[in-house]
Specification:
With 368 residues, the protein is an all-alpha fold. The protein has helices at 8-35, 42-63, 69-77, 79-111, 118-135, 137-162, 180-193, 212-238, 248-253, 266-295, 305-318, 323-367; strands at 257-258, 262-263.
């Protein structure tokens, strides 16, 4: 079904923007509502979910090295229950891809292309993603490797140019209200960290599988540090008003002004968002298309790419009447929905698989 191979580093380049792209825009505001000045601690606590998810995904991969979760679910819990669980995974990933596409469209329309129909923006992005998904995992890995520096450099530039506007005293008092506010603030970013389970669709195609766990954990650390830095930037500039902004990082860029010439750098954040959203939608799209083909026992996933694209666009329109509903889903439903489907259910699968493996070993030792 997929003959391509990627390196562990390319997997990192695919997963890093997949998590960070949407998180850097909305997470600072969301965490600030609960954690106040301790919002920078919340990604550190939330990353524990990321580490656990990578560990679970890698252990499942070691037990079933050439299969994804859609395939080995049938071996772990039986054919019919496995098919039902596979359908639930697909019914999670396909609408989520539509939601990500809708969030991308809402951000572009709200911030830049105000008079452009959102349908045009969504359809054009999905068309690009469809071409790269049809190209296979190698094309996707190389594109991510090419685009990630474009994703990271504007963030580094932002840190340097905002230096004069930093008010470092805004970080105090640290843990002034105890540990509970940062813990509450970490629940929603935890949903983003659970997305690391996507590596289960990439690990079977690694050329250096032994590095999968190591690079997965390194990616969790890189995502955590990026979110900590972004939250600190926002805190140092906006202080207590962070929680009132929809896109705090976008507001922060408007503070940049060097000699009344070098300013209005919102386009840099737009570049970060577009590149990150492109990689993120492509990775989710690939997982959904590959998983659907495996669930239907097809010989090639490319035949479902275009029908899947239409379905993703429709989900983006049907599921969320307005941008407020998209934001409400991110805050209220996704952290728990994502954690259930991408961390808790895989943990249960791993537990059942380990028990069954132990039972087989006992039977084998008795018979010998």
């Amino acid at each position: 079904m997929e003959k391509g191979r990627i390196s562990a580093l390319q997997m990192t380049f695919m997963i890093y923007p997949t998590i960070v792209a949407t998180a850097i825009l909305g997470v600072p505001s969301i965490t600030a509502k609960y954690a106040k000045t301790d919002l920078w601690l919340s990604p550190i606590l939330a990353s524990l979910i990321g580490y656990a998810t990578v560990y679970i995904a890698y252990k499942l991969h070691k037990l079933y090295p050439k299969q994804t979760v859609i395939q080995f679910s049938e071996q772990i819990i039986g054919r019919i229950p496995g098919k039902i669980l596979g359908f639930l995974f697909l019914f999670f990933y396909i609408p989520i891809t539509g939601q990500i596409l809708r969030s991308y469209g809402e951000f572009i329309v709200d911030s830049f292309l105000v008079k452009t129909p959102i349908s045009v923006i969504m359809a054009s992005m999905l068309l690009l993603c469809a071409f790269i998904v049809r190209g296979g995992i190698e094309v996707l890995g190389r594109a991510a490797q090419l685009f990630v520096p474009v994703f990271i450099l504007p963030i580094l530039l932002l840190i340097i140019l905002l230096g004069p506007d930093f008010e470092f005293k805004n970080i105090f008092p640290i843990l002034g209200n105890g540990i509970m506010p940062p813990i509450k603030g970490s629940i929603i970013p935890g949903g983003w960290f659970s997305e690391f389970f996507l590596i289960i669709f990439l690990l079977p195609f690694l050329s250096d599988v032994k590095k999968g766990m190591k690079y997965g954990m390194m990616t969790v650390f890189a995502v955590m540090m990026t979110l900590v830095v972004v939250n600190l930037i926002v805190l140092f500039v906006l202080e207590s008003t962070t929680s009132t902004k929809n896109y705090p990082l976008m507001n922060v860029t408007r503070y940049i002004s060097l000699a009344n010439f070098f300013e209005h750098l919102e386009s840099a954040i737009m570049a970060v968002w577009i590149v990150g959203a492109f990689v993120k939608i492509s990775v989710f799209y690939y997982a959904a298309a590959l998983g659907t083909a495996q669930w239907l026992n097809l010989s090639d996933y490319r035949s479902v790419v275009w029908p899947m694209g239409i379905l993703i666009v429709e989900f983006g329109f049907w599921s969320y009447p307005s941008s407020m509903d998209v934001s409400r889903y991110d805050i209220v439903a996704f952290p728990f929905h994502g954690l259930l489907m991408q961390t808790i259910i895989p943990l249960l699968l791993l537990g059942i698989a380990m028990v069954r493996k132990r039972n087989r070993q006992r039977k084998g030792s008795k018979s010998s």
